[in-house]
Amino acid sequence: MSPDSRTPGSVRSPAEVNEHIRALWLRARGSLSAQERSEYELLVVEWAEAIRGQIIEAA
Fold first, then answer.
1. DSSP secondary-structure letter at 2?
2. Burial 34-57 (b: 16+ CB within 10 A, else e)
3. What is the pTM of this model?
4. Exposed / middle / buried, residue 17 (Cβ in 10 Å: 0-12, 13-18, 19+)
5. How far is residue 10's CA from residue 34's CA, in Å, rounded to a whole number?
6. For 1-59, where are the alpha helices, taking DSSP H only?
7. Cβ atoms of residues 10 and 53 within 8 Å
8. Residues 6+ apart with CB under 8 A from 44
9. 13 neighbors 50 (Cβ within 8 angstroms)
């Protein structure tokens, strides 16, 4: 599932997002196209938000 196709407001765990990031890099074999780079950037932002959410919950 690409970040664009997820339901607004849905939250994936950092581990799940990280899994998608790793899969993207594996598919790209270490060299991202422009489209893959955009997807990667969205995934990194989503991952950071998920991590931030866990930190807030823990506090």
1. -
2. eeeeebbebbeebbeebeeeeeee
3. 0.75
4. buried
5. 26
6. 14-28, 34-58
7. no
8. 21
9. yes
pLDDT per position as a tens digit, 2-36: 444 444 455 799 999 999 999 999 999 989 999 99
In this structure, which amino acid lies at residue 25? W
The Cα-based distances of 40 to 1, 8, 52, 56, 59 in angstroms read 12, 18, 18, 24, 29
Residue with tokens 């074999």: 29
3-state DSSP call for residue 12?
Answer: coil
